[in-house]
């Protein structure tokens, strides 16, 4: 028993003021799935009480389009955030009428099959950016009609879809921001095994000159009368730097990490764009949290070894793991912000020589759904405790073990001597009594 006690490790727990050095950053790892938020506009933002405000973090974030079962579709979605202001034509431009074709659920597929390239402006009449785009879009449509007659040429056609009227058509093409300019190429916009379209999005400037150059670059890749080149690789296109694939689905899985200061702050996931508008009544920020933790990554092996000594450690390290915040009723989803209030406590395990063996952060979580007057978001408000739990190992010294062994051995001999003396005296007394009886 003494040997077992010597080999075992005891600990002492105390609560002290957090000893983290000034200016140290805290890492937040997460993996979340948003079934109704497109990767095209999904943005991860960070803010805190010290005035830090970082929008649309992309360096340490990865996005994957997902289906209705939260399974990723295709490779990583490269958002390629625009770093400059989108250029528009000046106000007061001449009205060129309705140069683009009005598309709906009945004529959309026919137009896509009759022309090598169909460029569509998905817009909303109430949208500020759609209103700014409209004059230049109609002007470009008239110019392209004059240069490339849709009936005689057939290589390109410009159309438009009013998403307030053609709701199903816009939903089918996963349009969440207005205006969204999509490029459909004949033969390449086919449905894959998941039932999703494959086409491109345009994120460049929206002035007339830039749009005309972009349209002409699309037409130049398809010589008149040769429709097979519509399927060629577009990597040689000069406008490749402003073109990206449109999201193949309406959902997005966001994973990665951010570093924040050790002060109260917010991690916010929302739809964000500097040149698009969003209909807040149709935004659904329901999500499933696969992983959310604070601090450095701890390998399962290290955590298992520590839990053998301290069983309660790590119980709340990933408290929200596997939690779902999904509303099936679309009517109840409108303009709802989902907030999570997290209180984080640091736990540190130290060796007797003050060497840190393990540093982990556990947290409590309280969640709520709040009606919002602005664009709905998913907000994680975190607040770090000024106190930390300090667990120190207390190994026993060998001298203490040796002293106890000597004490045990000495005690055994002493007790054995006492028992031997009692037994010997008892036997002598019995013999004396027996001898007295014989006489």
TrEMBL record:
Q: Which Pfam families match?
A: COPIIcoated_ERV (PF07970), ERGIC_N (PF13850), Thioredoxin (PF00085)
Q: Where, per UniProt, does this protein localize? A: Membrane
Q: How does it sit in the membrane?
A: Single-pass membrane protein
Q: Which residues form the Thioredoxin domain?
A: 75-220
Indicate the transmembrane segments per the record. Answer: 401-423
UniProt main location, coarse: membrane
Any idea which UniProt keywords this protein has? Membrane, Signal, Transmembrane, Transmembrane helix
Query: Can you tell which superkingdom this protein's organism belongs to?
Result: Eukaryota
Choose one Gene Ontology CC annotation of this protein and give it.
membrane
Q: Which family does it belong to?
A: Belongs to the protein disulfide isomerase family.
Protein name, please? Thioredoxin domain-containing protein
Q: What organism does the UniProt record list as the source?
A: Chenopodium quinoa (Quinoa)
Q: What is the lineage of its organism?
A: Eukaryota, Viridiplantae, Streptophyta, Embryophyta, Tracheophyta
């Amino acid at each position: 028993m003494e040997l077992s006690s010597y080999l075992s490790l005891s600990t002492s727990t105390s609560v002290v003021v957090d000893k983290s050095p000034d200016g140290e950053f805290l890492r937040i790892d997460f993996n979340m799935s948003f079934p109704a938020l497109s990767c095209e506009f999904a943005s991860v933002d960070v803010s805190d009480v010290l005035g830090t405000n970082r929008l649309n973090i992309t360096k340490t974030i990865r996005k994957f389009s997902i289906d209705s079962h939260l399974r990723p579709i295709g490779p990583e979605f490269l958002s390629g955030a625009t770093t400059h202001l989108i250029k528009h034509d000046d106000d007061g431009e001449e009205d060129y009428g309705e140069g683009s074709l009005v598309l709906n659920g009945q004529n959309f597929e026919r137009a896509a099959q009759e022309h090598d390239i169909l460029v569509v402006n998905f817009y909303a009449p109430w949208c500020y950016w759609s209103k700014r785009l409209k004059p230049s879009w109609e002007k470009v449509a008239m110019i392209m009609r004059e240069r490339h007659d849709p009936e005689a040429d057939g290589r390109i056609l410009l159309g438009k879809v009013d998403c307030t009227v053609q709701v199903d058509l816009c939903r089918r093409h996963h349009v969440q921001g207005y205006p969204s300019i999509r490029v459909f190429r004949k033969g390449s916009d086919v449905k894959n095994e998941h039932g999703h379209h494959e086409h491109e999005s345009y994120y460049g400037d929206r002035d007339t000159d830039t749009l005309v150059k972009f349209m002409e670059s699309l037409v130049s890749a398809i010589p008149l009368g040769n429709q097979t080149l519509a399927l060629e690789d577009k990597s040689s296109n000069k406008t490749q730097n402003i073109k990206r694939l449109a999201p193949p689905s309406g959902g997005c899985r966001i994973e990665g990490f951010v570093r924040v200061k050790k002060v109260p702050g917010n991690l916010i996931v929302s739809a964000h764009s500097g040149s698009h508008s969003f209909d807040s009544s149709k935004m659904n920020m329901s999500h499933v949290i696969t992983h959310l933790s604070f601090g450095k990554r701890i390998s399962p092996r290290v955590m298992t070894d520590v839990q053998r000594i301290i069983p309660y450690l790590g119980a709340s390290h990933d408290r929200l793991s596997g939690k779902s915040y999904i509303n099936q009723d679309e009517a109840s989803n409108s303009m709802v912000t989902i907030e999570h209030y997290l209180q984080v406590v640091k736990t540190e395990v130290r060796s007797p020589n003050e060497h840190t063996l393990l540093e982990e952060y556990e947290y409590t979580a309280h969640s709520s759904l709040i009606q919002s007057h602005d664009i709905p978001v998913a907000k994680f408000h975190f607040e770090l405790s000024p106190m930390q739990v300090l667990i120190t190992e207390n190994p026993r010294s060998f001298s203490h073990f040796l002293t106890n062994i000597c004490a045990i051995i000495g005690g055994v001999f002493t007790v054995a001597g006492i028992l031997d003396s009692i037994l010997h005296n008892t036997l002598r007394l019995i013999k004396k009594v027996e001898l007295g009886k014989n006489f």
